[in-house]
Amino acid sequence: MKHSRGGTVTSEGTRAIHAGHPPVRPGGPFTDGPVFASTFHMSGDPDGPYQYGRFANPTWTALETALADLEGAAAAVSFGSGMAAVSGALLALAQPGHTIVLPADGYPATRTVGTHLADRGVTVRHVRTDTAALAAAVPDADLVWLETPSNPGLDVCDIPAIAELAHRHGALVAVDNTLATPLGQLPLALGADLSVASGTKALTGHSDVLLGYVASADPALGDRIRAWRTMTGGIPGPMEAWLAHRSLATLHLRVDRQTQNATALAELLSAHPGVADVRYPGLPGDPAHVLATRQMRRPGCIVVFTLPDADTAQRFLAALDLVAEATSFGGVHSIAERRGRWPGDDIPAGFVRFSAGCEDTPDLLADVTQALDKALG
What we know:
Layout (H helix, E strand, L loop, with lengths): L11 H7 L39 H14 L3 E5 L2 H12 L5 E5 L4 H12 L3 E5 L3 H7 L5 E5 L11 H10 L3 E5 L17 E5 L13 E5 L2 H14 L5 H11 L2 H20 L5 E4 L9 H7 L6 E5 L3 H10 L4 E2 L9 E4 L12 E5 L5 H16 L1
Parallel strand pairs: 2-3, 2-4, 4-5, 5-6, 10-11
Antiparallel strand pairs: 1-7, 6-7, 8-9, 9-12, 11-12
């Protein structure tokens, strides 16, 4: 990107602060405010970027410019939620007679969209996040959807290898990049055609916005997905788009602190005799560590582990003071939940998904330690 004062910026933190914002002008603000408009002045035939509020909005444009910059994309399309982005990409691209591959161990709602597609003549294959298993499913697929690291299991697959194979067979590749964010992983640079994410999570990071986006390496793909958004009306509100853009300025600070906390938490849990099956891609010895280190710049904020049973897990969650029990991740507040309370994941009853926030590391570790002591007796 070109900085507003003229210099070329390559460092990701600086780009996150400046991307998509207006050029310097005397008396001008650092950031433009949200544009609340359903209707724009238009004389004669349609002309210019802004004609009607469902088609485009200057606040979306600023956010999408920033997202495309951070993702290294030709185009980015914002949506009203992460699931609007997921379903927009899948429904815009998967046609009757097509075959698509979806992660069997990824976000359950994505598989729900797959069920709707199967009802409409699309062949859907569910494959776990494993490079060899995915490679075997590629040859006659039209679209391969990856979620790496997977949620909640944190397995990782080789994006460049899958993308190279898929393209050889004429298939598109989309990566759900929600957990990593563009500062943790760049799917398009690794060979994918689409990077899809819920901006509700780490991207905005304050648990106050619902948002999603699709970034595309090909402008024509971006146009198809934008046309789908216009037709279905899955648009973001201008305030949500403005809040998301504002939040990008601290993304690098937040993900660095979250990574620090998640790493320390994973180390603590791995050494605890009452905790089993700790998974964190940033932890040496984790099954995904070598591959994650090769294709990710930051391993993310989520640590998962298993306690003896559901009751123990619930006692642990109830004993936490700083950490909230909630069903999301990526925010400045640390949160945790027993994932088995939701259907759709093949996990043990005592499986806990923990999203490390931005608290001071010693305080977070002390809270987890005392909660484990109470839960495990």
